[in-house]
Amino acid sequence: xxxxxxxxxxxxxxxxxxxxxxxxxxxxxxxxxxxxxxxxxxxxxxxxxxxxxxxxxxxxxxxxxxxxxxxxxxxxxxxxxxxxxxxxxxxxxxxxxxxxxxxxxxxxxxxxxxxxxxxxxxxxxxxxxxxxxxxxxxxxxxxxxxxxxxxxxxxxxxxxxxxxxxxxxxxxxxxxxxxxxxxxxxxxxxxxxxxxxxxxxxxxxxxxxxxxxxxxxxxxxxxxxxxxxxxxxxxxxxxxxxxxxxxxxxxxxxxxxxxxxxxxxxxxxxx
Length: 271
Ligand code: DGL
Description:
With 271 residues, the protein is of the alpha/beta class. It has helices at residues 18-27, 49-65, 76-80, 94-103, 116-121, 123-131, 146-153, 157-177, 194-200, 209-224, 244-254, and strands at 8-12, 33-37, 70-73, 91-93, 109-114, 137-142, 182-186, 206-207, 236-240, 259-264. It has a 6-stranded parallel sheet with strand order 4-3-1-2-9-10, sandwiched between helices. The chain has a 4-stranded parallel sheet with strand order 6-5-7-8, with helices on both faces. Helix 4 (94-103) crosses helix 6 and helix 4 packs across helix 10. The longest helix is centred in the middle third of the chain and has 21 residues, at 157-177. D-glutamic acid (DGL) binds at residues 12-14, 16, 42-45, 75-77, 94, 115, 118, 147, 187-189.
């Protein structure tokens, strides 16, 4: 039985889901968040479906065992295979949120950048076309290196130069040749480098599914009477299979608030 004071679980292969946690802290400041980032196994986008499903289940079980009242699947790659996972609480996923965000736009040509796995699944074009009232063209581009580069480069000028070089490599054709009307950031790592994208392509409208996810979560909590009634601001506990110091630093760099702890948790053995 869900309880209003229970935390909300957020999961991602790495720090990408921090972009979602940030939106939730903005929109639902009284909620307590439990974050799981599988730093030992990033990038998920270059793994196969079986492995991604097993690693996702490992994180989901971790969060559900800690009594979360809802799950934010803040990883587009996991969202592609979510039906393969056993869930015992309501889940909101990044891909659905991204497609919902596009459905409300007056655009003709939509670009989507994502991991290679998400791109190969073609989930974004299918979902966007299925639910858009307009006739649209959807272009998808899979980026093999971008998530990993973002994960380890925030705040480091040399690393960020590589991120920008990679962004240009992946986006140039879509923006300059195809002239998309907007670009969906179909991997939760990418909103963390919005400033770099805007510097390279000023005026390109960017769609970050995180805001839509936070709104869908808020609507659900209100509808079910599950919004946390506490008057104090909620906290954020971070668990990672990666480097604890690096995650604590990234949380600060991203601007997350009220981080009560950053703790190591052993990774799943996928050998
Ligand atoms: N941030 C994840 C996503 O939204 C995955 C990045 C990765 O691990 O490849 O797809």
